[in-house]
Amino acid sequence: MPADIPVPAAPAPPAAQAPHPRFAVGVLAFCGVVVAVMQTIVVPLLPHIPALTGATPAAASWLVTVTLLTGAVFTPVLGRVGDMYGKRRVLVASLAVLVIGSVLCAVSSHIGVLITGRALQGAAIAVVPLGISILRDELPPERVLSAVALMSSTLGIGAAVGLPVAALVIEHFEWHTMFWVSGAIGLLDIVLVLLCVPESPLRSRGRFDALGALGLSAALVCLLLAVTQGADWGWGSARTVGLLVAAVVIALLWGAYELRVPTPMVDLRVSARPAVLLTNIAALLVGFAFYANSLVTAQMVQEPKATGYGLGASLVVSGLCLLPGGVAMVALSPVSARISAKHGPKTSLALATAVIAVGYGVRYFTSHSLWLIIAGATVVASGTAIAYSALPALVMRGVPVSETGAANGLNTLMRSIGQAFCSATVAAVLANITFRAGGRTAPTLHAYQLVFVIAAGAALAALAVTLFLPGRTPAAGAAGTVEESRGTADTHEGGVRAAGIQESAS
Question: pTM here?
C-alpha cells in the first residue's frame, strides 16, 4: 500500500503562520515539561488522598492509573489527527483539555471528579509527539535534531521535576493549589503556542480511521487495566486473565482490519519495518528501565532507619533526589543531538542504554549513602536523556513525513506501556520480598536491589535490540515519500524542510 503523500494546507499570511518562530522550540519544550509534570504530580499525594477525600486506597490509586490509560489511548490517536487536520490545532486542543482537567481537580475533593480531571490531564501527553512533528516540519535541517532531542526529553524532565514540586506544595500549601497552578500554566501554554508556534502546513490525505482508533483504544485499555490492576485483583483472577485475553483478541482483529483500510490509524506495514519495529521495542524497554528509577528512589530514601538501609528522609528531600537527574536531562539533550548528527541516532541509543545499565550498577552497590543514591539516579537519568533524544530521530528516519505525528505518538505509547509494566513489576517485587522492621512491614534491601537488576536487564535488552537496528540508510519507503513531497510541493518550504530532516537524521 503506498504511503500517504503530504500535501500543503491552504496558504495563510506569513504573520499568521509564525509570528515569532524563533521561540517555537522553547515554547514547545515548556509545554512538554508541563504535561509530563502532570503525570507524576499526584504521586506524593496518594498516601493522603483517602484521608482528604474519604476514598479507599484502591480508588485513590486510580488518580495515577487513569492518566496512564488516557495518555496511552490519546497519544497515537491525536498524533494521527494532527497529521491530518493540523498539528498546532490539535496541540492547543490537548492543552485546553489539560486546563479543564486541572480546574476539575482544583474545585473538588470528590474522588470521582478528581479521577475525571486526572483522565483529562493524561490525554494531554499527546503534546509531546505533536510538538516533535511540528519541529520536524518547520525547522531548518541543522536545527531539527537538537530541537527534537529537547522535546522528547521533556517526558523525563517533567517526571524528575514533578515529584519535588508536588512535595513542596503538599508541605507548604493547601493541596488543591497545585491544580490551580497547573491550570494557570496550561492557559499560559496555550497563549504562547498561539503567539509563537506556526501551524505545520503539511497534511495527510484520506479519512480518519475512526474504527481503527476505537480498536486500538479498546486493546490498550484491556492490556493496561490488566497490567496496572493485576496485583490488586490477582494475576490469576478471572478479571485479569479475561482482560489480557481480550487485549490479544482485539489486537489481532484490529491488525487484520488495519491492513485492509486505505488510510489506517497505524500503518502496520511501515510499523513492521525493522527500523521502526525495533525502535518501538527499544522504546518500551527504555521506558521500563527509566521508570524504575523514578518509582523506587523516593520510596527507598524515605524508608525508616530501622530497616538498616533506609535514610528516613522527608517527602521533600526524597523528591529532590531526582532533581539533579532532571537538570542532567536538559543539559544532555543537545549532546545527544550532536552524537546523533555525527554518528547516527543508533549509536546514541546504544550508548544511552549502556549508561542506564551502568547507572543501575551504581544503584545496586550504593544503597546506604544519600549522595551516592543521587549520583546513581542521575546517571540513569543521563542515559535516559540520550535515549529519549535518539528515539524520535530513529522514528523519523523510518516513516514517511506525512505520518510523523502518528509514528511518534506510537513510540511515546510504547514508552508508556513500558512504564506500566515497570510499575506492576516494582509493586510485585516490593510487596512480596518484605520483613518486619521498626514495628512495620517494609521491603528488604534485596527487594530494591532486585528492582535495579531487572531494570538494568531491561536496559541491556534495549541495547541488544538497538544493535540489530539497520544502519544509517533510511528506509526506501520513507525516502520515496520525501521525494513525493518534493514533487507535490517543490516550492513549499515545509516540504523541503521535511525532506532535509530525512537526510539529516539518516
Answer: 0.78
